[in-house]
Design goal:
Helices cover 23% and strands 29% of the residues. The protein is α+β, with helices and mostly antiparallel strands and 192 residues long. The chain has a single domain, classed as tt1808, chain A. The strands form 4 sheets. Strands 3-5-7-8-9-10 form a 6-stranded mixed beta sheet. A two-stranded antiparallel sheet has the order 1-2. Strands 4-6 form a two-stranded parallel sheet. It starts with 27 loop residues before the first strand and ends with a helix. InterPro entries: Nuclease_put_TT1808, Restrct_endonuc-II-like, Uma2. Pfam families: Uma2 (PF05685).
């Protein structure tokens, strides 16, 4: 068994520096900061539910993916938890951010600020039409949808913890109360 690779030390990262990383390391680059996520099974459960909901009515000219890198600029290559992109980019990584019609982040204890503010600004500046943050850290799983404003930036569109159907970018129904109940059941059984 070989020793784990030591990551180069940098205070500021660019996409050019990513070539120095092991190819199988899941990372994202946000505002020059290298982030190596380690999601929990509950986080991934929510991501899968979002993906399945989007896949239900996904048009043939789009593709939904989990944990897909988006190429934005030299200091940013984020990996939204779920992203909908034009199908011609389905076999490419990173995908150019211009191909994304929706980015979804599922908040975790160490990503809440980054998901709600840093990535919202990043995706809005890059022109991603719709951005959703799913927050499973609240008492009830909550969805916040932000839409690109003609004035720049995002404007809030929806915030709910209920059963919701959204028609953007296509019809998607999400049963947030069912996700909350499943999370509660799992946490009770886990003793946490």
């Amino acid at each position: 068994m070989t020793a784990a690779p030591i990551l180069p030390e940098r205070s500021e990262w660019t996409v050019d520096d990513l070539d120095d990383l092991p190819k199988d390391l899941p990372y994202e680059l946000v505002n020059g900061r290298l982030i190596v996520p380690s999601p929990t099974p509950l986080h991934q459960f929510i991501c899968a539910r979002v993906m399945f909901a989007l896949e239900q009515h996904c048009p043939d000219d789009y593709f939904v993916s989990i944990d897909q890198s988006l190429s934005v600029d030299r200091r940013n290559e984020p990996r939204p938890d779920v992203v909908a992109v034009r199908v011609e980019h389905a076999n490419r990584s990173p995908v150019p951010v211009e191909a994304a019609v929706l980015a979804v982040e599922v908040a975790s204890p160490d990503s809440t600020f980054r998901d709600r503010y840093d990535k919202a600004r990043l995706y809005a500046a890059a022109g991603v039409p719709s951005y959703r943050v799913i927050d499973p850290l609240r008492e009830k799983v909550t969805l916040t949808e932000l839409l690109l404003s003609p004035k720049g930036g995002y404007e809030p569109s929806v915030e709910t913890d209920g059963l919701i159907t959204i028609d953007r970018p296509w019809k998607t129904t999400m049963d947030l109360p069912a996700w909350t109940a499943r999370r509660r059941s799992v946490l009770e059984r886990a003793g946490t």
